[in-house]
Specification:
About 35% of the residues lie in helices and about 15% in strands. The chain has helices at about 5-15, 60-70, 100-110, 130-140, 155-160, 165-180, 195-210, 230-235, 245-255, 285-295; strands at about 20-25, 85-90, 115-120, 145-150, 185-190, 215-220, 225, 265, 275-280. The strands form two sheets. A seven-stranded parallel sheet has the order 1-2-3-4-5-6-8, with helices on both faces. The chain has a two-stranded antiparallel ribbon with strand order 7-9. The chain is globular, with a radius of gyration of 18 Å. The protein starts with 5 loop residues before the first helix and ends with a helix.
Length: about 300
C-alpha cells in the first residue's frame, strides 16, 4: 500500500532531506494552569508531549542545540549551509500565553535561513483572532504548519482524557485555519481505554471527510508513561494494550481511509524509553518502524 509519507512530501516540497528541530516556546496549557483544569491531559508527560524538545533557552540557542542532535542523520553529501530544517514548537500549547512574546519567537525562527517551515503544536481553543492573523501573514514568508491535538472525536473519551474542549470547537478552528491557507496537521491517539476499533476508525473517517482536505495526520499509538495520570489508572485498573501485530492491522485500516492528499506524519508513538511503561514493544523505535513499514508495504 502506498501512502503519502512525510519524508517523500518534504523532499518534493523542499527538494532535499529535511529534519524537524524539536523546540519549546516556554508555554503551559489551560488544562494545567487551572483555566480549564489542572494536571493536563491524562496521557501527557511532564515534558508536555515534547520530551525531545530543547530546553527553554533563547530560540537561536535551542535551534543550534537541536541541529546538533540531528546532524548525524543528514547525508554527508549535503553541506552544512544547504541543510534545511522545520522549527517545531512541540511542548505543551505553543500559542497559549503572552502572544507578543510568542509571535516574536515564531518570527525569529522563520527568519533564519536554514528554517524551511515553522510547525506549531497547539489546541483548537487556544488560537485567538490576533494570533490567527499573525500566523496567516507569517505563512506568506515561509510555510506555517499548525498541529492540533484532537486525539478522538468521541466526547466520552475526550472527557476521560481531560481534553477540555468539544468537537465543534475543533471544527470552528480547523475551518478558520484553512480559510487562511495554513497547513493543518491533526493528532489522533489509537488505543484509548474503552474505545473500540470501530470508534477509532470513526475518528479517522471523520478527518478523512473534512473539506478542505486535511493536510496531515499523526497517528499516535497510546503510550503509558511514568508520571502521568494514565499510568496511575493503568497500575490500579489495567486496560488493553495493543500487541505490535494488532496495532499494525489497525494502522493499515486507518491508512486505507485517508485521502491520498493527506500526508502521514507519524504512524506510531515516540515517547522516552526511560519512562515507558506500556507497550514495552514500542521502546525500540527503529525496529518498530521497520516492522510497520514492511507490514504496510505488504498491502
Amino acid at each position: 500500500m502506498k501512502i503519502n509519507s512525510l519524508s517523500g512530501y518534504l523532499k518534493k516540497q523542499f527538494g532535499t532531506k529535511v529534519y524537524k528541530l524539536s523546540l519549546s516556546a516556554g508555554c503551559t496549557c489551560p488544562t494545567r494552569d487551572g483555566t480549564i483544569s489542572y494536571g493536563g491531559c491524562i496521557f501527557c508527560s511532564e515534558g508536555g508531549s515534547g520530551d525531545f524538545a530543547s530546553s527553554f533557552d533563547s530560540i537561536e540557542v535551542q535551534i543550534e542545540k537541536a541541529k546538533q542532535k540531528v546532524e548525524s542523520k543528514f547525508p554527508k553529501k549535503i553541506p552544512d549551509e544547504d541543510r534545511k530544517y522545520i522549527a517545531y514548537f512541540q511542548s505543551f500549547t505553543s500559542t497559549y500565553g503572552n502572544e507578543e512574546r510568542l509571535m516574536k519567537l515564531f518570527e525569529t525562527a522563520c527568519s533564519l535561513k536554514e528554517i524551511a517551515a515553522v510547525s506549531i503544536g497547539t489546541r483548537p481553543d487556544c488560537i485567538s483572532d490576533k494570533m490567527l492573523s499573525f500566523l496567516s501573514k507569517l505563512n506568506r514568508k515561509k510555510p506555517v504548519w499548525i498541529e492540533l491535538g484532537l486525539q478522538t472525536i468521541h466526547q466520552k473519551s475526550a472527557d476521560f482524557i481531560k481534553r477540555g474542549y468539544c468537537l465543534p470547537q475543533f471544527e470552528k478552528t480547523y475551518y478558520a485555519l484553512k480559510k487562511e491557507n495554513l497547513t493543518v496537521i491533526v493528532h489522533l491517539i489509537l488505543g484509548l481505554p474503552g474505545e473500540t476499533e470501530n470508534q477509532m476508525l470513526e475518528s479517522v473517517k471523520y478527518l478523512a471527510s473534512l473539506s478542505p482536505v486535511l493536510d496531515g495526520i499523526k497517528l499516535q499509538l497510546l503510550q503509558v508513561l511514568e508520571g502521568t495520570e494514565l499510568a496511575q489508572i493503568y497500575k490500579t485498573s489495567p486496560f488493553k494494550i495493543f500487541t505490535m501485530e494488532e496495532y499494525a492491522n489497525l494502522l493499515v485500516k486507518c491508512l486505507k481511509l485517508l485521502p491520498q492528499q493527506t500526508v502521514v506524519h507519524r504512524i506510531t508513538g515516540d515517547g522516552p524509553k526511560r519512562i515507558l511503561i506500556e507497550p514495552k514493544w514500542c521502546g525500540n523505535k527503529k525496529a518498530v518502524l521497520n516492522y510497520l513499514t514492511r507490514f504496510i508495504d505488504s498491502y
